[in-house]
Structures
1.
Amino acid sequence: MNAGTEVLPLSCEHVSIRYGRTRVIDDVSFAVPAGCVYALLGRNGAGKSSLVRCLVGQQRATAGRAVLFGGDVWRDRAGLMARVGLVPEEPDAPPELSPARLLALTGRLYDRWDEAGTRERLRRFAIPMETPFARLSKGQKGAVQLALALGHAPELLILDDPTLGLDVVARDQVFREVIGELADRGTTILITTHDLAAIEGIADRVGMLREGRLVLDEPLEAMKERFALPLERIFAEVTSASVGGAR
Amino acid sequence: MSERVAVRGLMAIAVREVSERAALLGVAVFLAVVPFVAPWMGIGDRPLLGAFLGTVMVFAAAALTGSSVVARDLAEGRLGFFLSRPVPWWSIWGGKMLAALVLTFAAGMIVLGPSTLGGEWSLPAGGWWAMILAPGLVALIGIAHALAVAYRARSAWFALDLAMAAALGWLVARTFRGLMAWGVYTGGVDFVAPAVWILAFAVTAAGAAQVARGRADIQRSHRILAIVIWSVLTPAVVAYAAWGIWISRFAPADLRTVVSAWPSSDGSWIVATGRARWPRPETFTPTVLMDARGQRFLRVATARLEQGPVFSEDVTRAVWVVDAWTDSPRLMAADLRSTPPSVSRVPLPVPPGAVAGVALSADGENVAVVQRSQATVFKLGSSQATVTAPVRAAWWRPIVFDRDGRAHMMSGPAEPFSPGNLAVTVLDPATRKVATTGQIPTRGHAGERWGPGAARVAVGDSLGPRRPSLTLHDGSTGDLIATLVPEGSAGQIAVTFMRDGRLAVVEHGRRIVLRVFSTEGEESLSLEIQPTFGWARLAEVAPGVLAVELPLPGKAGSDSVLVDVSAGRVLRRERGLRPASFSYPFGTEAADAGGLFIDDRGALVRMDVATGQRRVVLGGH
């Protein structure tokens, strides 16, 4: 990053991921400017979750690198995670801990932690505080993960298919919370999903993955204008066939 | 990210892991009660049960915690919960390992504590166990962790793990056995403790590297884990194997001190047993067969495991038995004419069992072997048994060839420490016949020494704690020729046959007296060596010259008094020297034509008996 230029919250530089001989992500590059809501779309098995794990330093890219706030996330994962919140596709909190104990545990892992705010958010989500995490519903688990991801007021929030398996009510709740946070803080957001309707109103920019390659990356409104099609149609066409003008 | 948060994170993770597995401590509490309740119900011995359950608990806790703290989270995709927080890898790994250690230690203490506090048993003194226990627990947890990751990853690297474990295990076992064959025991705490530390380091470092570099990717985690573990263990095991090979490649010059030595009849070859120089281990006590000029040598075995070597009269051949005291003894034969001398293993045509005595005929054609219940004479060239005899042999049992090629030995008595008869047994390979040619009554605790050509045999009774006696017998018929030392006339005795067949006896106790008897039992010399209390041994160090060893009270060394038997006088007293061939263990005498002594520094010294001039042959530095 040159002096004087804006430090991007997230940039993905020629990232490739392979599992043995299987290529999951192939030379993917994109950047998310500060305050932007970037929706990374792809069908199931498109490699979104693998890419997210690379973006948060949990998995090493076969080639390329992920850069958060100007730092290589593989090298400086711990330092950068203080500025990042992650909601993984599969809830990963210790199953035997209740939300109350999860809150206490997570708070001890951060320098800055908004205990009251997080507790209030969990209350708004109507989460039973003493029920073990494993016994919460899918929607409740997602809500707990989201609350824990926002507890340290991250500058970058990464949501990996946060509405997967949620009913309509729970899904709307998650997105309302995200939108609320956005309004309050101007947080940069990367969201991977195939829930196109949900991101329609909130995404600034959209990227689409097909067979591990980023075949489209542009502002949502510009894209809709260019294709003159609803987002669902664009997605269907882009992710099932090659598209002229795709990156 | 601050260090404070990292340490706080480590502790938070550790506390979370411990609280998740608190049930383990509940099981430990239950097991702690069992030893106090079970004896009421007639089950088991309380201290034994407590120790057993405690040991089981420690192992089970280590295996359970080690296999779950990281591997389960990794396999179930939950390690990301901590990896997406601003805590370094060492907080995650350290917290989980700390929890596993605390749980294992606490569970063990809960079960073992009550019995220990009750004084029913205690840990061994010296604290050496801590050198193994501490790294042992870490190693156990780390191994359980590595196995769990390997199992859950289900990658092709698991095949590599199995192959490497098998290869290194085989190399360790082979080296261990090889070293054992040379009398170097590497199963003691001095060797096991470093090995356990290395193992603990390998699995701990591997686990740390796995979390640091493998993170949430279980395939990559397993790969890193395997690479680190085998990168640490392979050089360590290879170094151990190389050290084992180096140990066994010793040369005579590697002997620091000589313990015993004896020459062949013409003095051209020397058998020397000694301790090797550092960095070979102190316990390594090999035997070498070397020519007197030190230019050719053979590695024989380790002193504790061998019988022999014994030479043919023309000193062209030598045989010895390796692993003599095991059920699978091996006979080795050397051709001393070739350069370098060649050694070959000769099949032993005897039933499985320890070898209590071995002899080689004067012409080197026949070998005689004594076992607990059988004596066998066989051809060295063909391993064809020519004659066997049922015998009774307790521990060492000498067997000797006479000038006509017949093997003589004593058989019996039925109870070695009780009165009974020694049967003079003669095995004749020419006629393939066995004959019991005489009976010699003993009072118990009998021991025999054969004279040159088996013409005479001296039998000592009660050479142990009771007052000794000594009789001289015909070597074929067992007929009593003379009672040389009646019971009660001497405190202790030591005997040696001289090369001309005379028998020398040193009586020691309140004073030390040397007596020499002819082959017919007539006393030809009685010479007071020391008028005061002492202890002595003797050997013929040159034709007609005896050396009486006088250990120096309160000191490590000995002096030797040289006696010219023909002149009947003391030649001189040699300071700091003892005859080398006392340990010749075969019931016959090592005719020492070369005047071999061992000095105070442990050097094997050849001394010119006439002039007193000394020359170091081996060791002593």
Note: Chain A touches chain B at residues 19, 53, 56-60, 77-82, 84, 86, 88, 90, 92-97, 105-106, 108-111 (CB under 8 Å).
2.
Amino acid sequence: MSYDLFMASIPVILEGFRLTVIITLAAFLLGQVAALPLALAAASRHRVVAWPAQFYIFFVRGSPVLVQLFIIYYGLGGLEAVRDSILWPILKEPVGCAILAVGLNSAAYVGALLRGAITQIPPGQSEAARILGLGRWQTLTRVVLPQAYRDVLPVLGNEITLVMKASSLASAVTVIEMTGAARVMVSRTFAPFEAFTVAGLFYLGLALIFAWVFRFVERRSAIPGLSNRES
Amino acid sequence: MTDRKKAENVTQTDAITVRGLEKSYGSVKVINGISLSVKPGEKVVVCGPSGSGKSTFIRCICGLETRSAGDIRVAGHDLALDCSNIRDFGGDVGMVFQHFNLFPHLTALQNLMLAPRLVRGQKREQIRKSAMEMLERVGIAERAQYYPNQLSGGQQQRVAIARALCMQPKVMLFDEPTSALDPETVGEVLEVMSTLARDGMTMIVVTHEMGFARSVADRVILLDEGRIVEENTPEAFFEHPEHERTREFLKKIVHE
């Protein structure tokens, strides 16, 4: 291993760092936004609502993210309806496709997780809320979700790390994020060990930051007297 | 005023009216034709063996359980058969559960303040003040900032009672409020309930606490197999019950 090559890799890969962070955060956010309606639909008593959501979760979790990314990047552009749609500015860009693929994937995982947490809240909680006069929406937002999200928070910290790792797949559709930048470095110097080691260390550092942030949020939102309820 | 009109007037002002209540799970009838009228300020204790339908009965009245047939009118609200209009109660019907069902992510005080804020839309300071008064009334004001899981069962149940009272209910329903409690905390909850009764609250209490029934109830009802077996004053119920089934039940309760 060459020290010089190692140091030379750092600025090149740092250029991809920004895109990795953007893809990770945007995909995670998209996943969170889409996961909630997905979870609520999947937990519904009405089959017409529950089945499509459950099928989506099954379909997305049952196929590789890379394949889904290829479908979105190479496949959707071929459809005229897509090219005419308002989403085209996003789908035209490889970064947009990567965010969409990883985000929709994350939505399926988090949706399944959240569905489980929602159905595990004791029915007595909603009963108490409704007899006090709260409507369905108020019961959901004030009583059920605050508890469900606290339950899934430790797993969400894990999920953002998974999203970060999946973001490296964007390099397969020409995005020069960290993994892509490492490959650029390799093609220039033929030093894969140094380049990918640097990229790996940056990923690790990012994962550590996410872990810290989530542990902080977890501590802040913990319910006193209830710390040992889970696991 | 004719007698008939008087009779109508009485039903009009009943706090709770149940007529011909029936409830089935599939082919199993758990409630088999119950009718009951409770006047404002009246206290009715409902007891019966497990599986007699007493819990289902009280859950039907508060609209948490749908029914197969019968009319229910509580605190001036006619409850739809499918309970779709439960929100009309808007806190007029207070319910106390066996397992308290406090919101674990909120402090005792926040538990009390949630519904008045969201449902009644009162001012925050005003709600806070009346919530603190309510906690004082159930003797737990010093624990206002505690979370439910930091409180004993008896304390949690007192907070749950206070939470229901914050909505100024016209009727309070209790579903075995002391069954999940440690024996030493049962007394403090019964005391709060007795005070509430003395203050004139209309109450239906499902319980096996016969001492409470004796001292607080205006009427005691024995349910068995989804029917009212005996409906009597406490003295008559405990001293010389009309039905053999009641004697049997009381004997078992005493042995416990």
Note: Chain A touches chain B at residues 122, 124-125, 127-135, 138, 142-143, 146-147, 150, 223-226 (CB under 8 Å).
3.
Amino acid sequence: MSQSKPNVAGDRTTAGPASAVLGRAAQAIPGPLIGLILVCAVFSFLSPYFLTTRNIFNIFSQVSEIGIMSVGAALVIITGGIDLSVGAVLALSVMVNAWFYRDFGIPFPLAMLAGLLVGTFVGFVNGILATYGRIQPFVATLATMSACTGLALYVTNGSPITGFPDHFSTLTRVRLLGIPLEMILMGAVFLAVAFWLNFRPTGRALYAIGGSEEVARLSGIHTRRVKVGVYSLAGFFAALAGLIVTSRLDSAQPTAGVNDLLSVIAVVVIGGASLAGGSGGMLGTFVGLMIIGVLQNGMALLNVSPNLQPVVIGGAIIVAVMLDRRTKS
Amino acid sequence: MDTDVPAETGLHCRGLVKSYGKIEVLKSVDLNLEPGRVCALIGENGAGKSTFNSIIAGVVQPSGGSMWLDGAAYAPTSPSDAIDRGVALIHQEIRLLPGLSVAENLFLGRLPTRAGRIDRAGMEEQAREVLDSIGVRLDPRRPVRGLSMAQQQGIEIAKAILRRPNYVIFDEPTASLGESEAEHILGLVRSLRDAGTGVIYVSHRLDEVRAIADQVLCLRDGESVALWEDGAPKTQAMINAMVGREFTFGHHAPEPHRDQVVLKVEGAGRTGAFEDISFELHQGEILGIAGLVGAGRTDVVRAIAGADQLDRGRIEVEGREVRVSTPKGAMEAGISMVPEDRKGLGLNLDRTAAENITLPWERELTRFGTVMPGTVEGIGRDQKARFDIRGRMNLPVGSMSGGNQQKVLLAKWLVHDPRVFIVDEPTRGVDVGAKMAIYEILRQLAAAGIGVIVVSSELEEVLGLSHRILVMCEGRSSGILSRADATPERVMALAVGD
């Protein structure tokens, strides 16, 4: 893991021909990619329905919520931190959005904006606590996770809110040129962040900070400012994922996102990032996301008990990380 | 391979070979070390010293050759095997657990117990005894966190001695220590020797070698190139053997422009670190800062470079007052600093050399807001050529030798030339060849009109490079000497506060 810098090699060619992308990916994140190809091969053999366009779009739709959150989580993990609050932030932002719209009669777009702002603000608080507050990110985000979970329940005393404008709930059913909207949104997020991580000075600084914060600071990088930004971004993406959830369910659930945290961290880790910081990237995270998505989708197609699915995911984490270690050293 | 059984006593190695794949890193090296003698092992980085030590200490197994220990065949399969046979290696890097007490660190892994509980009193008693025996005054109950490097090094030595070894290998024990602490370590080595222990002593500091060695073995490129059996020879002879060519400090940088003050520091102070530091640095001048470890040399330059906050005093660059509260601020004011700890503060060893070099400059390297990989590689290539860096710029910098890493570190801060260039311990852990190259770089910078500040624990280095020397003692400036006045004796006198 110590020598990994997968994203730089990987994402550089995202815009290039598909074969080049695969070649780079094979070099940069061999373990996860082999894993993904393997599970795809197995499922396409076991289920004739698996490799249909319709099902593939389905997979993308299903993972879009986790996917957008994973982008933020990956950024935090690259800096050597961790954000446990993403799921709780999703729930809180969803509830604030619905609550403002229903109980205060605020126009829906503004209520949406409020939800996004709340998510970003919690991320900002995480960042301040983890940097200027000198609290370990694990502890700081554990605290905000607890607070957000409670607040999300508190605003409506635990009951969900329904009755959103029609145009909002149809968003997750609309397709653009046959592609689901949430898939486009997720793709845009991945591409924009990949560009930022690889080509913008601040994005590239995340790797320096994760590698050694003091080296980065002495190199003239405002490490604390950058980290606050990264945690804020993670909060924003959690809130953005919340919009997809609300639209899909056509209701705001105070317990939305509670099960997402482990999936999100699993995605980032399967994608080749090290919790020690300094490595990881968008291409890896995307492959990790696909592994989780394909596993869940494939097991559903094969009628595997939902209670067994987390066991398989746990196995996948171990196998992917071991393959990654082996092929990199 | 020599098969005769050597003498009844001593550590004897015959034709030790170590190869990794096709690469031979050690080519048939012999050693004869009698109890109560000190064998200094010298050589540039990469000469095979560490491999040689690792074989004797059981860390790695040789590919060929044989060893005897006090008349019996000796082939340790692990470090604990070697320790059981009475051979201890004291690593250059300190590996203590900061949260545990001194005594707990000493007895780590084999804490003494009485009636099923840890025998703290007994352990602390024994710890005090062994620490006293090597003259390290420390309370065994206090945690290791916060102790100086010299004190921690002392604990490492105590830890090895606790097992009563007959042979001890010191791997550059003084690399991160100042002169007086180093002197203490040398005293320790002498007392071990007088007690009948055989010592292998690795050091880049040849004055130390001259002070304690009974015999000197010099390695170069994995081969034994010279062996002196009766004490150490002249420094120059050892250097020539190490590098295979002549070494000199070379010419001095040209005289600075005394009328052009590039940096002026007035009454600078940082609570708990240093007070009342004032000096002027001229264009093209090399100012050395000397003093014992802990005198505050590093603190002063860190504050000037914005790494720490200055509590009092003012700084002027070319006549304009500047406020440096961050490293970025200092860079913008024209002050760059190469920090002392290459691995912890200077470079990100997992990233490529080129990425390390461009890290401070990325904002200026953008084109249409983006940093292009080609730009980074291009600057890497330019700096590689300018500083004669040997190694691939697109590989993690951790894979380079110490000397080349140090060149990369200098190159990182010289993508754009600053007005004031500060280097802290510029040649620590660097071999002689790279040292000469680094001195030449510093002289060229001064010749180009940059003000250079050199902080170094090696007196020889400060004297050889600087136009003037500021000597510090306990956080204060105890005097500024011109080159003509600066003898080693006068600098040391000021450093210890006479």
Note: The two ends of chain A are 8 Å apart (CA to CA).
